[in-house]
Amino acid sequence: MKAYLANGLFSLGDRLVNEQLAAAIREAVPGIELYVPQENDAINDKTAYADSLAIAQADLEMLQNSDVLVAVLDGVEIDSGVAAEIGAFAMLNRPIVGVFTDVRQQGRDNMMKIEALVRDGIENQFVYRNLFVIGLIKRTGMITTSIAEAVQAVQKYKK
User: Fold this and answer.
1) Could you give the maximum distance between any two Cα atoms of the chain, in Å?
2) Name one Pfam family in it (predicted).
């Protein structure tokens, strides 16, 4: 099985999440060929140089050869590169596992939060994600709320 891990890779937080998620997937799915862009120094060693065409070509080839995409959806917004990778991969009609760990998903049944939102749209205790991108994920895959759930989803899609 081949998989692609999409997430930002420029901040320490993103790199650490990528390392944890990749390690968990590799441990749970022996023999998986998991592509993690931050591990590809040919295009992502930021002390070196790779132009936009080289980056696009390298990542598109890996997406096209992958059976499943694991896409981290955390952050203020979905990382623009991740959203692009989701869009490209969705065209292949293969499963996408979204990983969305934002704690603001909790308390969706709390009526005080819901009533506050109805009274004042700015009093939003919840989180928004672009619905087109979410729809692309849901067409063929699922959204998980933890690394453990994401690993289980990848195992489910193992060929």
Assistant:
1) 52
2) Nuc_deoxyrib_tr
Structure tokens at 9: 């890779």
Domain housing 99: 2-157
Run of H or E residues at 33: strand 33-35
Question: Over 39-103, what HEC string results?
Answer: HCHHHHCCCCCCCHHHHHHHHHHHHHCCCEEEEECCCCCCCHHHHHHHHHHHCCCCCEEEECCCH
Angle at 83 between CA 128 and CA 59, to 5 degrees: 160
pLDDT, tens digit (0-9, with 9 covering 90-100), for 127-138: 889 999 999 999
Per-residue pLDDT tens over the stretch 91-119? 999 999 999 998 887 778 899 988 998 99
For the chain, the straight-line distance linking the first and the last C-alpha, in angstroms and rounded, comes to 6
Q: What CATH number does the domain containing 56 carry?
A: 3.40.50.450
User: Six-digit token pair at 20?
Assistant: 């944890």
What is the H or E stretch that residue 35 is in? strand 33-35
Q: How far apart are CA 104 and CA 126, in angstroms?
A: 5
- CA-CA-CA-CA torsion sign (90, 93, 99, 102): positive
Domain total in the chain: 1
